[in-house]
Amino acid sequence: MTQTIRHIVFDIGKVLIHYDPDIPYSRIIPNKEERQWFFENVCTHEWNLEQDRGRTWQDAEALLIAEHPEKEAHIRAFRENWHEMVSHAYDESVAIMLGLIEDGRDVTMLTNFASDTFRQAQEMYPFLKRPRGVTVSGDVGLIKPDVAIYETHHKAFNLEPSATLFIDDSYPNVEGARKAGWQAVHFTGIEKLREDLKAHGVL
Fold this sequence. Notes:
It contains 12 helices and 5 strands. Helix 11 links the parallel strand 4 (164-168) and strand 5. It is α/β, with parallel strands linked by helices. The chain folds into 2 domains: 7-18 and 88-199, HAD superfamily/HAD-like (Rossmann fold), CATH 3.40.50.1000; 22-85, no CATH class. It has helices at residues 22-28, 32-41, 45-52, 57-67, 72-80, 82-85, 91-102, 115-124, 137-140, 147-156, 171-179, 190-199, and strands at residues 7-10, 106-111, 134-136, 164-168, 183-186. The relative contact order is 0.18. Strands 3-2-1-4-5 form a 5-stranded parallel beta sheet, with helices on both faces. The chain is elongated.
Protein backbone atom coordinates (compact mmCIF):
# COMPACT_ATOMS: atom_id res chain seq x y z
CA MET A 1 0.00 0.00 0.00
CA THR A 2 1.32 3.43 -0.89
CA GLN A 3 2.13 5.83 1.91
CA THR A 4 -0.44 8.44 2.89
CA ILE A 5 0.11 11.70 1.02
CA ARG A 6 0.80 14.66 3.31
CA HIS A 7 2.37 17.05 0.80
CA ILE A 8 1.20 17.99 -2.71
CA VAL A 9 3.61 19.73 -5.09
CA PHE A 10 2.39 21.34 -8.32
CA ASP A 11 4.37 22.16 -11.43
CA ILE A 12 3.15 25.43 -12.98
CA GLY A 13 3.62 25.69 -16.76
CA LYS A 14 1.02 23.60 -18.64
CA VAL A 15 -0.46 22.41 -15.34
CA LEU A 16 -1.73 25.67 -13.81
CA ILE A 17 -1.03 28.20 -16.58
CA HIS A 18 -0.68 27.88 -20.34
CA TYR A 19 2.64 28.47 -22.09
CA ASP A 20 3.13 28.79 -25.84
CA PRO A 21 5.80 30.97 -27.55
CA ASP A 22 3.86 30.62 -30.79
CA ILE A 23 1.22 33.03 -29.50
CA PRO A 24 3.26 36.24 -29.94
CA TYR A 25 5.55 34.85 -32.64
CA SER A 26 2.69 33.98 -34.97
CA ARG A 27 2.35 37.75 -35.20
CA ILE A 28 6.07 38.60 -35.08
CA ILE A 29 7.07 35.98 -37.69
CA PRO A 30 3.85 35.28 -39.65
CA ASN A 31 5.45 32.75 -42.01
CA LYS A 32 5.08 29.32 -40.38
CA GLU A 33 8.22 27.81 -41.93
CA GLU A 34 10.33 30.83 -41.00
CA ARG A 35 8.94 30.75 -37.47
CA GLN A 36 9.68 27.04 -37.11
CA TRP A 37 13.25 27.61 -38.31
CA PHE A 38 13.66 30.40 -35.75
CA PHE A 39 12.57 28.17 -32.85
CA GLU A 40 14.70 25.27 -34.06
CA ASN A 41 17.86 27.31 -34.68
CA VAL A 42 17.77 30.58 -32.71
CA CYS A 43 15.46 30.86 -29.69
CA THR A 44 15.46 27.11 -29.09
CA HIS A 45 13.95 25.21 -26.18
CA GLU A 46 17.48 24.46 -24.96
CA TRP A 47 18.40 28.17 -25.06
CA ASN A 48 15.32 29.10 -23.06
CA LEU A 49 15.99 26.34 -20.54
CA GLU A 50 19.24 28.05 -19.55
CA GLN A 51 17.24 31.06 -18.36
CA ASP A 52 15.26 28.58 -16.25
CA ARG A 53 18.64 27.47 -14.86
CA GLY A 54 19.49 31.05 -13.90
CA ARG A 55 21.19 32.67 -16.89
CA THR A 56 20.18 36.31 -17.28
CA TRP A 57 18.15 37.42 -20.27
CA GLN A 58 20.85 40.00 -21.02
CA ASP A 59 23.47 37.26 -21.36
CA ALA A 60 21.07 35.00 -23.26
CA GLU A 61 20.21 37.69 -25.79
CA ALA A 62 23.84 38.75 -26.23
CA LEU A 63 24.85 35.17 -27.02
CA LEU A 64 22.27 34.79 -29.78
CA ILE A 65 22.69 38.29 -31.20
CA ALA A 66 26.42 37.61 -31.63
CA GLU A 67 25.53 34.50 -33.66
CA HIS A 68 22.52 35.95 -35.51
CA PRO A 69 22.88 39.75 -35.62
CA GLU A 70 20.27 40.03 -38.36
CA LYS A 71 17.71 38.46 -35.99
CA GLU A 72 18.28 40.87 -33.10
CA ALA A 73 14.74 42.25 -33.05
CA HIS A 74 13.23 38.77 -33.14
CA ILE A 75 15.57 37.57 -30.38
CA ARG A 76 14.75 40.49 -28.08
CA ALA A 77 11.05 39.95 -28.83
CA PHE A 78 11.11 36.71 -26.83
CA ARG A 79 11.48 38.40 -23.45
CA GLU A 80 9.61 41.54 -24.49
CA ASN A 81 6.52 39.54 -25.41
CA TRP A 82 6.87 36.78 -22.86
CA HIS A 83 3.69 37.82 -21.04
CA GLU A 84 1.66 36.87 -24.13
CA MET A 85 3.05 33.32 -24.01
CA VAL A 86 1.34 32.68 -20.67
CA SER A 87 -2.04 33.53 -22.10
CA HIS A 88 -4.43 31.95 -19.61
CA ALA A 89 -4.83 29.86 -16.49
CA TYR A 90 -6.08 26.28 -16.45
CA ASP A 91 -9.08 27.13 -14.30
CA GLU A 92 -10.00 23.58 -13.32
CA SER A 93 -6.45 22.73 -12.21
CA VAL A 94 -6.28 26.00 -10.28
CA ALA A 95 -9.60 25.22 -8.61
CA ILE A 96 -8.27 21.84 -7.47
CA MET A 97 -5.09 23.43 -6.07
CA LEU A 98 -6.99 26.17 -4.24
CA GLY A 99 -9.49 23.62 -2.93
CA LEU A 100 -6.68 21.55 -1.47
CA ILE A 101 -5.23 24.64 0.23
CA GLU A 102 -8.64 25.57 1.63
CA ASP A 103 -9.03 22.02 2.94
CA GLY A 104 -5.82 22.49 4.93
CA ARG A 105 -3.58 20.41 2.67
CA ASP A 106 0.13 21.26 2.47
CA VAL A 107 0.59 22.59 -1.07
CA THR A 108 3.82 23.90 -2.58
CA MET A 109 5.08 24.41 -6.14
CA LEU A 110 8.24 23.33 -8.00
CA THR A 111 8.86 24.89 -11.37
CA ASN A 112 11.36 25.34 -14.17
CA PHE A 113 11.03 29.11 -14.57
CA ALA A 114 13.34 32.10 -15.01
CA SER A 115 13.43 34.17 -11.82
CA ASP A 116 12.09 37.39 -13.29
CA THR A 117 9.37 35.89 -15.46
CA PHE A 118 8.11 33.85 -12.51
CA ARG A 119 7.58 37.05 -10.50
CA GLN A 120 5.81 38.54 -13.51
CA ALA A 121 3.60 35.45 -13.70
CA GLN A 122 2.71 35.83 -10.01
CA GLU A 123 1.50 39.37 -10.68
CA MET A 124 -0.52 38.18 -13.69
CA TYR A 125 -1.91 35.18 -11.80
CA PRO A 126 -2.14 35.95 -8.06
CA PHE A 127 -3.18 32.38 -7.22
CA LEU A 128 0.51 31.53 -7.69
CA LYS A 129 1.06 33.28 -4.33
CA ARG A 130 -1.40 31.05 -2.47
CA PRO A 131 0.63 27.84 -1.85
CA ARG A 132 2.95 27.64 1.17
CA GLY A 133 5.96 28.25 -1.03
CA VAL A 134 7.73 27.58 -4.31
CA THR A 135 11.11 26.45 -5.58
CA VAL A 136 11.95 28.31 -8.80
CA SER A 137 14.71 26.73 -10.86
CA GLY A 138 16.13 30.11 -11.84
CA ASP A 139 16.57 30.99 -8.16
CA VAL A 140 18.41 27.81 -7.18
CA GLY A 141 20.42 27.15 -10.36
CA LEU A 142 18.97 23.67 -10.84
CA ILE A 143 16.34 22.37 -13.25
CA LYS A 144 14.01 19.39 -13.38
CA PRO A 145 14.47 16.49 -13.90
CA ASP A 146 17.77 16.78 -11.97
CA VAL A 147 17.18 14.89 -8.71
CA ALA A 148 19.00 17.68 -6.86
CA ILE A 149 16.15 20.17 -7.40
CA TYR A 150 13.62 17.80 -5.80
CA GLU A 151 15.96 17.30 -2.87
CA THR A 152 16.42 21.07 -2.59
CA HIS A 153 12.63 21.48 -2.51
CA HIS A 154 11.85 18.84 0.08
CA LYS A 155 14.62 20.10 2.37
CA ALA A 156 13.53 23.73 1.99
CA PHE A 157 9.91 22.93 2.90
CA ASN A 158 10.55 20.01 5.28
CA LEU A 159 8.67 17.49 3.15
CA GLU A 160 8.89 13.74 3.67
CA PRO A 161 9.69 12.50 0.13
CA SER A 162 7.66 9.27 0.30
CA ALA A 163 4.62 11.21 1.58
CA THR A 164 4.90 13.80 -1.23
CA LEU A 165 2.84 13.72 -4.43
CA PHE A 166 4.18 15.68 -7.43
CA ILE A 167 2.12 16.74 -10.47
CA ASP A 168 3.91 17.63 -13.72
CA ASP A 169 3.05 17.66 -17.43
CA SER A 170 6.55 16.42 -18.38
CA TYR A 171 7.04 12.68 -17.95
CA PRO A 172 10.84 13.03 -17.50
CA ASN A 173 10.11 15.42 -14.62
CA VAL A 174 7.71 12.87 -13.12
CA GLU A 175 10.46 10.24 -13.35
CA GLY A 176 12.91 12.67 -11.72
CA ALA A 177 10.56 13.06 -8.76
CA ARG A 178 10.25 9.29 -8.40
CA LYS A 179 14.04 8.95 -8.43
CA ALA A 180 14.07 11.43 -5.53
CA GLY A 181 11.74 9.11 -3.62
CA TRP A 182 8.54 11.07 -4.22
CA GLN A 183 5.24 9.77 -5.51
CA ALA A 184 4.32 11.48 -8.78
CA VAL A 185 1.62 11.64 -11.44
CA HIS A 186 1.79 12.72 -15.07
CA PHE A 187 -0.61 15.57 -15.87
CA THR A 188 -2.32 15.03 -19.22
CA GLY A 189 -5.70 16.60 -18.48
CA ILE A 190 -8.10 17.49 -15.71
CA GLU A 191 -10.06 14.23 -15.61
CA LYS A 192 -6.93 12.10 -15.26
CA LEU A 193 -5.66 14.48 -12.57
CA ARG A 194 -8.86 14.00 -10.58
CA GLU A 195 -8.58 10.21 -10.98
CA ASP A 196 -4.93 10.24 -9.92
CA LEU A 197 -5.61 12.41 -6.87
CA LYS A 198 -8.50 10.15 -5.82
CA ALA A 199 -6.30 7.07 -6.28
CA HIS A 200 -3.73 8.64 -3.95
CA GLY A 201 -6.38 9.55 -1.39
CA VAL A 202 -5.96 13.28 -1.95
CA LEU A 203 -9.45 14.06 -3.28
